[in-house]
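Cont'd.
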Amino acid sequence: MRWRQVVVLYVVLAALAGEYWVVERRVEPQARREAGAPPPFLRLDPATLREIRLVRGGRTVVTRREGEGWTIVEPAGAPIAPDLIAAFTTALADATEIARVGGADADPHAFGLDDQAARVEVISASGDPIEVTIGGTNPTGTAVYARRRGTPDVVLIGRNVRYYEDLIFQALSVDHVPATEAGAPIGG
Amino acid sequence: MSKRPGWWLALASAATFALAILPTAVRADVAPGDKITDQNIDKVKDLISPGMEWCIKHGWPMTIVETKRIEWPKAYKEATEKYASQVKLTPDGLTVLNYVAGLPFPNVDAKDPQVAMKIMWNWGYNHLTTDDVDLRNFDADTGAIADHGPLTVERHFLLFWTGRLYVDPKPDKPNPNGYRAQQGLYPILEPFDLKGVGALGNRYISSEKQDDSWLYLPSLRRVRRLSTAQRSDALFGQDTDVDSYYGYSGHIAWMDFKFLGERDLLSCYHAEHYPVKWHEKVDWAFDEKWEKRRVYVIEGISKLPQYAYGKRVIFIDKEAWIIPYSDIYDRSGELWKIWLNDVSFRPKAFEGANVIDYGEDRGFIPAIVMVDLQLEHATKASLPSPRFPGEQGWYFNQAEKAGVTEDWFNVAALVNAGH
């Protein structure tokens, strides 16, 4: 190999290294960010929350933090497991925007974000309330439409939030014991 | 008479008002004989999980029957009565102390701060599997809903070292390694490219020891060690993962559990068909009878950061202590998978010569289904496969008679079977 060929190879190598340094290195983190985890739906730390208010179908549930746990304030004495409120709160705080599906011009009825939707108000220790509307289930049944008050975007969040909301309202309707269980001894 | 119209008007107004507010108070309900499809799914909306709702909307049929009692096996009931009073849970909830056999915590109190862990430990020591299990000649078909191909496994077997009720030595085997149970799943018979593949695992009593798991890949002639978190990865090209077997098979201590309450849930606990009968049109659905049961609802979140799932919502029957099905969510909270058990309580698999008669009802699982709801993909397993006529599938507490001995639970046996 002649010295000129060696020089040319070195020049090509230097050009490639320069291109990587100037272009690729900057593009890569951005692409990685875009392909990375979706953004959170709410920037919420469950540990700082003081009160949760849920309204759905004319019924209201109000819970307040007392120490490490949650107490049901309204309806008083409702048989809702304190862990269910904690799980709901964590699910809401952990929810990420799976997709943004509509903006300010979105028809709320199309996403179930109308009068029939559930409304959740979370109040943090600082007293700032965050209000969220949780609408209908998406066609695949794995997520729900939601909108944060004060923002026009309709976003898709995981269905876990809706299921825990369902469990909370179902707990209000517990009114019977299945026949097999009434007075039954342990183990049959 | 002249006052009557006013009276009736008031009554009619009251009735109208009551009817107007009734829809918010009336719960969805079913009656024996009901056939549930996507057309009348509103009847069961309060009696199913989101995962089950997805299945019904995609064609899964349900026939409702009367709820029946489930009796525990006699030995299990006696062991519970004898030993339960001495069982304690450590303050961190991770270790069960003084356990011998039976259900560790028969008196569950929803107000107990450790209620979630006690329910999960009860699940971990339920009567479905006590001494040993040998599940033979089953198959698992995997594919898009309506398009599938077979995977056949020769044996899935379990050997329990503690809480034993039927086979000597009991209640414990001499146990220098501190095993709770050992598990084998090998060899795979088909498809051809997976022939000989198998898995092996050890579960320890100590909550501080993670599971030991190995995977043998004959094509590489290698045994790969799996981490505890990898138990949640789908294996062998299936939608199923080892940690989801039976509804939840991970170590109780490796998840944070929350008690979310109780509810009524439609469950399949008195399946009629053995082997399983798959629905003619919806061929990934077992065609069975469903009954209303009372269940605990538990949320489980893994302590392992590499765990595939964000959380599990596990339903556990209050009487039978068996999971009818469990929903699985991804890390964004989106519904991802469901595991469904087809459970049948009966004294023997079916009528026939040489079929083991257990002398009392016990739980069999003639089929399971795991559906990936996001990919519309499912694995259905026939336990046993109908391709093996006369096969009982499940052999409980047969020990050496079924070939479930300690020497099957080592890597050498796994490799030998794969050749």
